[in-house]
Amino acid sequence: MDSLIQQLRDVGFTELESKLLILLSEQGSMTGYEAAKKLGISRSNVYAALQRLVDQNFVLHAVGEPSHYAAIDPALLTKTIAERMQASLRYVEEHMPSHKQELSFFYSIEGDKVVAEKIGQVIAAAETEIIVDMTSRDGMLVQQALQQAENRGVKVLWSISSNEEQLPASGFLAFHEGQVDKHLAGRRFTMIMDRKIACIGMRSAAEEAKLLYTEHPVMTEYVLSRFIQDIILFELEQQLTEDQRQQFGPYFSRLWEPYLNKEM
């Protein structure tokens, strides 16, 4: 019941209007007095709410002594709500003032739910291409949204590991056999949408998710170049012979560790 009331409130009904719609749908036609008694709310408030619902054609009013009220069919109710919301959204889109956004801003977002919602928004808004670099654990969280993007014709490029290890180009903080710097412990991820929007974030069990969102072209190009480097290094590694693997190590550690030694 509470979840249904909340959903009705989310589409514009007051709490009392939501309760009345549910009550009338469950019980059928009844008087305002009966509805007030069922809900334990004053008759004046109930009659006022019923009149608003009648005015909006969500409730039918049979005038008489006493008058009776009945909810319209649920299918018609949802269709009417959807049509009115679509009309409102079209009006907002056509008439909302806008100005050219500053691309130099970097927006910091924190919190698991807020970060997830923002990622969902940018994926849903992508038109041509999405590039994703994250662990498989985090990839599961966006898999459905990315699948929907592919279904509408967006090209999706994945770079997802099956464990917490990464190639040095994408995990350059991985010192000493995969140990990360304790100040930045967590699962890092990056996303690029339409070569215009860059999202860089981190998730961990110890603290809330964090996300840096920007449309700055320099940052977008930087994230894209790192993704390309990852692909090149991955392809090179796949072509190494066993002797070369022994010489360079599984992630070319002998090449990059001297430059990334924490003690330097």
UniProtKB/TrEMBL annotation:
Pfam families membership: Regulator_TrmB, TrmB
Top-level taxon of origin: Bacteria
Alphabetical list of InterPro entries matching this protein: TrmB-like, Tscrpt_reg_TrmB_C, Tscrpt_reg_TrmB_N, WH-like_DNA-bd_sf, WH_DNA-bd_sf
Domain Transcription regulator TrmB C-terminal: 108-223
Cross-referenced SUPFAM superfamilies: Winged helix' DNA-binding domain
Residue ranges constituting the Transcription regulator TrmB N-terminal domain according to the UniProt record: 8-74
Listed CDD domains: PLDc_like_TrmB_middle
Matching Gene3D superfamilies: Winged helix-like DNA-binding domain superfamily/Winged helix DNA-binding domain
Protein name: Winged helix-turn-helix transcriptional regulator
